[in-house]
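Input/output pair, single chain:
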Amino acid sequence: MRFATSLAACALALAFSTAVLAQGLPRAAKPEEVGLSTDRLKRLSDRMKQGVKDGELPGAVVLVARNGKVAYLESFGLRDPEAKAEMKNDAIFRIASMTKPFVSVAIMMLAEEGKLSIAHPVSQYLPEFKDLKVGVVKKKDDGTSEVVLEAPKRQMTIQDLLRHTSGLSYGVAGSDPLKQAYVDAKVGDPNQTNAEMVTKLSKLALIHQPGTTWEYSHSTDVLGAIVEVVSKMPLDQFIAERIAKPLKLPDTGFMVDASKANRGARPQKEGPKNEMPNVPLVTNNAKWKSGGGGMVSTAADYARFCQFLLNGGQLDGVRLLSRKTVELMTANHLPPNVLMGPDMWRFEALEPGRHMGQGFGLGFAVRVDAGRSPLHGSVGDYFWGGAYGTYFWIDPKEKMFVVVMMQSPAARLPYRYLMRELVYQAVVN
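Output:
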């Protein structure tokens, strides 16, 4: 009886293990199977371990996949520095702006169903946006400033929201009265709904004429509101039922339940004041489901999302987008004469612009020229990151993608640069 019980327990464990593995991507027997060098990938591991040892970051999970197989998946450091809990590959992270590609996919799914067109004015779906004005800050004779309102030369479109040329911005406290107005209106309040956020934005002046300037902004939050209006579903429900469930992303959403709390990654004190970054717990269920930055995920889940995009909109027999739609999303949509907004520090890798060989598509930054960016990559690679430290890029030419998960706002840019260097130097075939 004891043997039978033990045998049954082993069978159950094996079945559970197989089910978990089935949710992931195939693993390469060794990196050389997909043209990567084991020895050279060790440089990546050594540098990550050194970064943890030197206190540059608390911990991280790094995943590299090529030709449809995971060639490298390693975790480093601590998942929770205060609890001294070891980082593991299944850790759950706040992904901040890596939410934006999910919402962009949702919009394009609705477009494919004929429920919206990205060429339409935003006001067709959000009537409150119909009478938006453009604010222009002008100096008065006495040295003070005033905001003069001008009519937009055209209305913003859904395409403008997707490529951040809407005229919207993020709120920044300071001398710019247009951006200070966002702060005063509490546009980023976690205790609001998407509809309430839209009402707040509708009462503020645009920062730029629509279509003229790339400026990172609340645009994708507005896209989330459009998803809700058009689909007649809350944004979190749409992503859960229409994207996460069919793609088998069990730990991806706007929060996870308390049973997964012991997998949540946490930051460490950092920065010039050695302060704890304000990274919400992965179990935190905020009222505002921010389409621009509210989600959580794991390296394995986000890898499946990347593979879905790299496959042209399908994964494991499930198709959510057509190949032509993914091609449209990953093309450069910035007009040749577009200006670049002043807040380039918000860009999540390197600033977009022709001088860097980079543009912006429908939800991602896109490399459009070889030899301009100082970072490794290929023409056509597309990428984005999150303010809490997460980052991904997809390189169709190399049939490769990389997912980096950590909760360290201060280390995010240096490590994104490092990842590009250390992954591409390992490509040997």
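The CA atoms of residues 228 and 373 lie 37 Å apart. DSSP finds eleven helices and 16 strands in the chain.
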